[in-house]
Amino acid sequence: MKQVGVVLSGCGVYDGAEIHEAVLTLLALDRAGAQAVCFAPDRKQLHVINHLSGEEMPEERNILLESARIARGKIQPLSQADANLLDALIVPGGFGAAKNLSNFAKEGADCSVDKDLAELVQQMHKMRKPIGFMCIAPVMLPKILNQPLRLTIGNDPDLGEVIDAMGGEPVICPVEDIVVDIDNKVVTTPAYMLAQSIGEAARGIDKLVLRVLDLVE
By the 8 A CB rule, do 10 and 75 touch? Predict the structure, then answer.
């Protein structure tokens, strides 16, 4: 059974992993006969957002503990992830990708990426193992791999310019489709950058998961 790392960034679209994207990823992997192995950084998240009002809340939460809600407790600290034990890696989106896995939300093109995530992605890439990023998460890829990459965040021209400045090659892509950089074994899909419903998000995510699994050697 293929072992696929899934990196979560909290629990909730505005301050963590996008829950629908994370669950759709886990469902698609299970349906394809693969084993999801969940990870998240074990540290404080940037901030906590009230998902009803959109306002910041005066409290602190831990990324790993919040992510464990989605993973039903079956999750490990990202620092313990071992590329040798994984066949592929997938990172769902949500603002947690831009706030907790990186500081892209604050720094844009000058952002830095979580050290453990960067090292894991670099190791997977070096070992020619496929990588799938969705929604806003692909913005981290040019920074992590430090080379030209074809990727998508949907069709946002302003974000496209930022990715271009970071050394990536943004590709316009509809919600139900994927962009594959075959040389680098990197697959991306817009998901909730464009999706108007969970069904729309699912179509692209299903394609991404199946393509990532196809690329496992």
Answer: no
Tokens of 176: 């139900």
H helix count then E strand count, the chain: 8, 11
How many residues can be counted in the chain? 217
Report how far residue 205's alpha carbon sits from residue 91's, in angstroms, rounded to the nearest whole number. Answer: 11
Please write the tens of the pLDDT for every residue from 57-81: 999 999 999 999 999 999 999 999 9
Q: Please, which pLDDT band fits residue 40 given cuts at 50, 70 and 90?
A: very high
| Residue whose pair of structure tokens reads 């604050």 in the numeric block | 106
Any bridge partners for residue 37, and if so which? 5
Catalytic residue among 11, 38, 111, 135: 135
Residue recorded with tokens 């920074």:
143
Evaluate whether 114 touches 122 at the Cβ level (below 8 Å): no
**Residue 32 vs residues 1, 26, 73, 162, 194: alpha-carbon distances, Å:** 10, 10, 22, 35, 25
CA–CA separation, 77 vs 178, rounded Å? 29
pLDDT-derived band at 28, boundaries 50, 70, 90 = very high
> Is 135 tagged catalytic?
yes
pLDDT at position 124 is 98
pTM of the model: 0.97
C-alpha 165 chain-centroid distance:
20
CA distance 139 to 102: 10
Mean pLDDT in residue range 165-171 = 93
pLDDT band at 33 (very low <50, low <70, confident <90, very high): very high
- Measured from the Cβ of residue 141, the count of other Cβ atoms closer than 10 Å reads 27
